[in-house]
Specification:
Elements (H helix, E strand, L loop, with lengths): L25 H17 L5 H8 L3 H9 L1 H9 L13 H10 L8 H7 L4 H7 L3 H17 L1 H13 L3 H10 L5 H23 L3 H18 L23 H5 L5
Helix pairs in contact: 9-10, 11-12
């Protein structure tokens, strides 16, 4: 007969410890799938009332479902925070947003997430969450506002490297040159010259005034955005003064 080792403790089953549940019940599995679908389409997990209406169960079972370790583990693996906490992000979500919005970090998005222990599936699920996506968008917009210096520095770098497009863009932004505005300005100069010619040959001041008004109105319709702006580098429409001899004015009959 084999002797037992006195130093080896004998394993005794403790009936006071409940067995570890390895699988979800069919009911909890259906409820978990409903939570996943609800979250994907609504941007947040369902409320207790949603679950009770869908599965016709009482509140005690909902509470049991919410604290079930396998339910929590399964939903966490899917990137779903449940129960839903309004406007609250966990540490892992905040870390993911911080690393994904770091544009100085040249790692791929997948490696950024993997290095902090987050899968791409989990992050993609978070993007379906209203609170998560809202905070990510707000943070990205703040970065957009704060990145103005990057655009300026990039433009300066392009000019220093002799990039003609950068030089042209700089002159347009500073109001020193704009091909469209130059073209509009030349048209107005031409119209002013035409009015001066008409003054020499059209003796009727009323007719001359009507012609000048119609030509200036035409110029205004062709470039309405350039009028009355007072923006540096933009040309106002030329003002044409019509000189009418006094003796002609005295003999006019205005109708």
């Amino acid at each position: 007969m084999a002797l037992s080792d006195p130093e080896t403790p004998e394993l005794v089953e403790d009936e006071t410890i409940p067995p570890i549940q390895e699988f979800l019940t069919n009911e909890f599995l259906d409820m978990m799938h409903f939570v996943e679908r609800f979250h994907a389409t609504r941007g947040k997990p369902p409320s207790d009332d949603d679950l009770m209406r869908r599965f016709n169960v009482a509140q005690p079972l909902i509470e049991e479902f919410k604290i079930d370790p396998l339910v929590q583990k399964s939903l966490r693996a899917r990137g779903i925070n449940y129960p839903h906490a309004e406007d609250i992000l966990n540490d892992r979500q905040l870390a993911a947003i911080a690393v994904m919005t770091n544009y100085v970090d040249k790692r791929s998005d997948e490696k950024k997430l993997r290095d902090i222990g987050i899968s791409t599936r989990e992050f993609a699920t978070w993007m379906l969450d209203d609170d998560f996506s809202r905070y990510l968008q707000e943070r990205a917009e703040r970065m957009f506002i704060g990145a103005q210096h990057e655009a300026h520095m990039g433009l300066i770098k392009g000019m220093r490297n002799g990039n003609v497009a950068s030089v042209k863009l700089f002159n347009e932004m500073s109001g020193r040159f704009n091909p469209d505005q130059e073209h509009q300005f030349n048209i107005r100069l031409l119209m002013s010259g035409i009015i001066e010619i008409l003054q020499k040959h059209v003796r009727d001041p009323i007719t001359l005034h009507k012609i000048a008004n119609e030509m200036m109105n035409l110029a205004a319709r062709e470039s309405p955005n350039e009028l009355g702006r007072g923006v540096p580098g933009r040309f106002a429409p030329p003002t044409q003064t019509i000189v009418v001899p006094q003796k002609e004015i005295e003999g006019l009959e205005v109708t």
